[in-house]
Amino acid sequence: MPEDRDWEAYKVPPTRTPVSERTTSVPNPVNYFQTAFNYVLDAPVTLVREWIEKWQSKNKFYYYHQKFRRVPDLSECLEGDYLCYYEAEAQWRRDRMVDQQIVEIVQERLAACKQREGPNQFQNCAKEMELLAQVTKAYQDRYGDLGYHGNARTCLMKQKHRMMEERKAQEEQQS
């Protein structure tokens, strides 16, 4: 590296950036508007938000772990007890959603196993296939043929009819 550097090629930047001088004595209205906005709108909202966050950090509530108590089945409700009917219907809907999620999870496990195993999927994923067959059969037995607008009453009637058919088949088999 040469000793005599070319100082004109690499100029050193100025040590201070010059400040632009104000040419008018009239204050900028944007500054007043910004200050008013900060004190009138932003400060109270920020104060309330911080207070809510502080309160919520003490009382943590997890929505995804909400546990409902089990309510009586529709068959256990007294006649004319509409509150019991409503609770049984809500319980049935929750149970149906849980059963749907179980079927979806088992399907996802089977799909992952098939993806992982490739050509050996029939040998190595037999357990998952059997589990899926059991889960879908149970779901179909309970909720099949109800349609989108199925409810707890029609599901109960379907189960009652299925039990009566099974009982008739047993009696015919015994005689």
UniProtKB/TrEMBL annotation:
Protein name: NADH dehydrogenase [ubiquinone] 1 beta subcomplex subunit 10
Organism of provenance: Erithacus rubecula (European robin)
UniProt record similarity statement: Belongs to the complex I NDUFB10 subunit family.
Protein function: Accessory subunit that is involved in the functional assembly of the mitochondrial respiratory chain complex I. Complex I has an NADH dehydrogenase activity with ubiquinone as an immediate electron acceptor and mediates the transfer of electrons from NADH to the respiratory chain.
Keyword vocabulary terms for this entry: Electron transport, Membrane, Mitochondrion, Mitochondrion inner membrane, Respiratory chain, Transport
Lipid bilayer topology: Peripheral membrane protein
Cellular component terms per the entry's GO annotation: mitochondrial inner membrane; respiratory chain complex I
Superkingdom to which the source organism belongs: Eukaryota
Subcellular location: Mitochondrion inner membrane
Pfam families from the UniProt entry: NDUFB10
Broad class of where this protein is predominantly found: mitochondrion
